[in-house]
């Protein structure tokens, strides 16, 4: 009897740990992608993006769409949060993705007060508008 209870408890614990581990990873959902992709984003490329960022409760904290001005940055150069540097690799111009970024790949333990709370999972709707000065493959 005790061994069954122990086995059940261990199985439940394993399930809880598996779910927790799964939620601590970057999730990349491709929303739409062009039929043809002549070029994919890679480290060193200057990307021009539109984005909308929200928290778990759905509240928006930032959006380039609202400013009607794209956001430009160099992919892989640490100019943005790690979740972007990882989640925007291999994108085609015109592609749209939804990124779910765990706090470890975003603003960490302390957040970015008052806009981003501590340990916040972030959600981004992103669209790659242009790859500027793309670096050639070596």
Task: Put the structure in a nutshell.
This protein has 138 residues and is α+β, with helices and mostly antiparallel strands.
Order of helices and strands: HEEEHEHEE
Q: What would you call the structural class?
A: alpha+beta
Strand segment tally: 6
Gross morphology: globular
Biggest sheet descriptor: 6 strands, antiparallel
Continuous helix count:
3
Helix fraction? 10-25%
What is the typical, i.e. mean, pLDDT?
88
Low-confidence stretches: 15-22
Shape-level CATH architecture: Roll
Which value, in Å, is the CA radius of gyration? 19 Å
Number of domains: 1
Distance between the termini: 64 Å
Query: Which CATH C-level class is it?
Result: Alpha Beta
Q: Please report which band the strand proportion falls in: under 5%, 5-15%, 15-25%, 25-35%, 35-45% or over 45%.
A: 25-35%
CATH topology: Chitinase A, domain 3
Could you characterize what this model shows?
Helices cover 23% and strands 29% of the residues. It is built from three helices and six strands, in the order H-E-E-E-H-E-H-E-E. It has helices at 2-23, 64-67, 82-87; strands spanning 27-32, 46-54, 60-63, 71-74, 96-101, 122-132. Strand 2 (46-54) and strand 3 form a beta hairpin. Residues 44-132 form the PPIase FKBP-type domain. Residues 1-21 form the signal peptide. Pfam families: FKBP_C (PF00254). Keywords: Isomerase, Rotamase, Signal.
Q: Which helices and strands appear, and what pairs or packs with what?
A:
Elements: H1 2-23, E1 27-32, E2 46-54, E3 60-63, H2 64-67, E4 71-74, H3 82-87, E5 96-101, E6 122-132
């Amino acid at each position: 009897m005790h061994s069954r209870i122990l086995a059940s408890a261990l199985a439940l614990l394993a399930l809880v740990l598996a779910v927790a581990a799964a939620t601590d990873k970057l999730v990349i959902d491709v929303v739409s992608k062009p039929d043809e992709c002549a070029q994919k984003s890679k480290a060193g490329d200057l990307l021009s993006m539109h984005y909308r960022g929200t928290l778990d409760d759905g509240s928006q904290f930032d959006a380039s769409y609202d400013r009607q001005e794209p956001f430009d940055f160099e992919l892989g150069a640490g100019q943005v949060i790690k979740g972007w540097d990882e989640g925007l690799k291999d994108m085609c111009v015109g592609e749209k993705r939804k990124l779910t970024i765990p706090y470890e790949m975003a603003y960490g333990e302390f957040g970015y007060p008052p806009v981003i709370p501590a340990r916040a999972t972030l959600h981004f709707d992103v669209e790659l508008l242009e790859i500027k000065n793309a670096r050639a493959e070596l």
